[in-house]
Amino acid sequence: MRFTSMSTPKKIFVIPFSHLDLFWAGTRSECLTRGVTIIKTALDMLEKYPAYRFMIEATNFLELFLEACPEQRDRVRRHVSDERLEVIPMRSITYTQLPSGETLVRNILYGREFCQRELGFVSKVISMSDIPGITPQMPQIAARSGMDALFLSHGCPPHTDHITYQALDGTRIKSYAPIHYAKCRALLAKGEDYDQMLEHKTEFLAYFDDVDYNMLCQWGADVCVIGEHVIQNIKRWNDDGHTPLSFSTFTEYFSQHYPADPKLIAGEIPSLWPNVESTWPDIWPLDLPCEQAMFDAEFFSVITGNTTHIPTLRKAWDWLLDSMDHNQNGIGGDVSDGDKRDLKIAAKLAAQQVSKQMSWALAAKATAPAVDAFPIVIFNTLSWDRSERICARATIYGPGTAKCETLQSDPQSFRLIDEQGNEVPMRIIKHRAMIADSIEVEFYAQDVPALGAKVYYLQPISRRHLPSPFQVEDGKARDQVSPHLYAGNTTIQSDFLKLDIDRVTGEFSVYDKQQQRMILNRAGILALEEKRGDYICKMDLTGRVIPAVVEKIKLIDHSPIAYRIQITGTVYGQRYTQTLTLDANTPTLQIENKIDWQGGCYARFEQAFPFASDQEAQTHYGVPFGSVQYPQTIYTNGLSFEDLVTPERADDPDDAITRIRLVSKWIALRDSQSTLTIGTGNRMWELDGNTIRNCMFRSIGNTSGGVIIHEDNTKEGVHRPPIDTYTFRYKLSVTDATQTLDGHCGWEHNAPLQTVGVGHCDVAQNPGLKLPTMPNTTGSSLIISNIKPALENPNDTVFRCFETAGQTDTLTLPKIAHKQWYEANMMEEQAVICTREQLTFEPYEIKTLLLKTND
Predict the structure, then answer these.
(1) What are 797's strand-pairing partners?
(2) DSSP state, 284?
(3) Cα gap 721→285, rounded to integer Å
(4) What integer pLDDT is reported at residue 319 of this predicted model?
């Protein structure tokens, strides 16, 4: 790509920085304290050389620096004010395809908050240093967060350079896409020795003289310190008449040297490191439940109006964001990886305790239809009405002594009822009796209101015993009559689906009785053998596919609610247990795979889903704040994946990456008749025509972050994952092809209904629990992904909403006494009154709404 010839000599604008990795070049404490040397040296150089510039990538490093060196605060603020020190307003350097959209927003929100509070100035540039893929909504997230520009790092061919990057909704932001963030420094021998710089001049010019426009590059590497000799060598380079290297900040470059008509690109940049989650099944899958715990706690803060826990949640967000830094497996070793895991768990536990305290107090307000009806309160934190199978519990007490006399004489004399007193079918999971009776039940909760609550009740009255709605053909029972026949299938049928399990292979097939067609044909667990790769880019296969070997198929339990069947066996020498649960009330199948990993082989352990269609199915999947149809990426209109040059593989990018995607919450296969949506918390998927496979985990023989060196100087690779039992869950939902692809199945899978058992009964004529009025997106393609107390005034409420299916839709804003709706940017600023009750969303548009109390 070339722009027209310039009237002034071409320059290369250099951004001095140090790539502030956490968990990579040591433990978190070692990396953060290394930052003290990095930042202090940068401040010294800024003092001595007026032309010098420096960029700090993340506020967590600067936060530690200011805490450790408070005497440096004035120097930092002065150089920021002079616009020579640029601090990127992000808490942490996170991936963009593993976090939720809301987490990406919080990373900027809390980074900006820190910059404004500590520095009095906020940069409007986001740097994606060393981030190996970009979610397609990142331009919209950045622009609606008040940013003017994006600096990318990986995934674009050489000399992509100046671009306008367009999000799914059409939002555009000026961006720069270098060959790699550390390329310039590497081409000139890091600037450490001037003679070596000259020796590399030819290689340097071969790249930078290939175009006739100004270029932008970062000068730095992982936790490096840029010393005075480097600055002097660059000055000498310029004085000797070579292609000028001019120190700059991002803000200076984008405001002064950015061309008027750069190339337009749009779409996802697939991750060049797609194996991160699958190789770290002990760390990265924790993200989703941690995020959801944070969202639940903020939901209850809004619903209860209790803002006392905001400082706790704010600190938990810092822990979670730091834990989602884009590094693992470095020389910090097990200590560093353990710290990363502990941060996530700490954030989750803190949020869960906040949720419990507030939800218990809220549930205690529930009223009952009878004095002996003990409430089970169900909270729905999503923005549409939900009907699904749940497990919950409550304890039945007596009116005086704790023991209920009815259950003393007949322990089975209890039932489940709804708010109208109607009996509800249930399955008893566990009944514990002594001082009182605590009862865990499974049942189908119907029409739980959006962002609201519904109440069911356990009551000590005899229940009806209902017949099973399932039809079962047990292959084991058939053997006892006709042992001479082929083993055949074990079959379970609901009113919606027929599940066939091959008794020899353990593979299962799903037939849709409503559409009268096969949906899945021989789905199963398998292992794709590898040649012993690493987690970043070495993942070549041997070509051998090892199927699972089934040992036993066992019918576990059945009830009016669900039917469960368990398959046990081995795959590539590793024991597995697969539990299939067929719902009675919906066309839904849930899968739970537990694999007892003991090591000893190198493979991708995958769950295959072969979509049974003669047509070429469309594959759609969720991304943060939207969805994408495979294979849409940026690689069109002259940009080619085959032209990539990467630090790990040079000019030989792995073609397998073109078929791998990191999926957010759901993936769907669709033909002209039906849609199969798979809710998932596992993000690495391989897409192979009508068969999609989830990579549950990968076993590798070495990591790219370091090797173990023994006293005799022999080396040992770091094997992963650790020996443990890993669990992977899926929720399969079958619909006809006319229904909107909203991904609800995946959102529900990752945000289960919250239940609270209540130990007292306040009788009311209209029993239940009324929560504050909230917007409802039922029947639309809109999703409210999070509600939270506002940053400026916690008594106001923020609603993050987006359109997910690529179509125009509307949201009705409920009228609430003494409240006013506003639309703001993602930073909760520039609020404008919503003058209409109906708010229109364009395809894939993200909106931030504020509900404020009238003055």
Answers:
(1) 789, 851
(2) G
(3) 13
(4) 98
Q: Give dist(CA 634, CA 845) in Å, integer.
A: 19
CA-nearest of 54, 72, 36 to 127 is: 54
> pTM of the predicted model, to two decimals?
0.96
pLDDT band for 1, please (50, 70, 90 cuts): very low
CA-to-CA separations, 846 to 468, 550, 628, 782, 802, in angstroms, rounded: 45, 47, 15, 10, 4
- Angstrom CA distances, 253 to 4, 42, 120, stand at 18, 20, 21
Q: What are φ and ψ of residue 708, in 5° steps? A: -90, 125
Least confident of 385-394, 658-667, 714-723: 714-723
Sorting pLDDT into bands at 50, 70 and 90, what band is 405?
very high
**Amino acid symbol at 437:** D
Query: What integer pLDDT is reported at residue 6 of this predicted model?
Result: 38
Residue 34: in which H helix or E strand, if any? helix 28-48
Contact assessment for residue 324 and residue 92, using Cβ atoms and an 8 Å cutoff: yes
Instruction: For residue range 797-809, list pLDDT tens digits in order.
Output: 999 999 999 999 9
- The pLDDT of 771-786, averaged and rounded, is 97
Residue whose token pair is 């199927």: 547
Q: Is 238 helix (H, G, I), strand (E, B) or coil?
A: helix
- From 31-40, 523-532, 608-617, 639-648, the region with the lowest mean pLDDT: 639-648
The CA distance from 804 to 733, in Å, is 18
pLDDT given at position 9: 64
* 28-48 vs 333-363: helix crossing angle, rounded to 10: 100
Q: How far apart are CA 121 and CA 302, in angstroms?
A: 30
Residue 375, preceding peptide bond in cis (omega within 30° of 0) = no
Helices (H), 192-286: 194-199, 201-208, 228-239, 250-256, 276-279
> pLDDT tens, 423-450?
999 999 999 999 999 999 999 999 999 9
CA-based nearest residue to 102, from 626, 839, 595: 626
What residues contact 855, with CB distance under 8 A and at least 6 apart? none
List alpha helices for 486-558, DSSP H.
none
Give the mean pLDDT of 726-747: 96
3-state SS assignment for residue 334: helix
273 Cβ neighbours under 8 A, 6+ residues apart:
132, 133, 535, 536, 537
Alpha helices in 280-332 (DSSP H): 287-304, 310-323
Segment 65-80 mean pLDDT:
98
What's the Cα-to-Cα distance from 106 to each of 299, 321, 633, 689, 823, rounded to whole Å?
A: 16, 8, 26, 36, 18
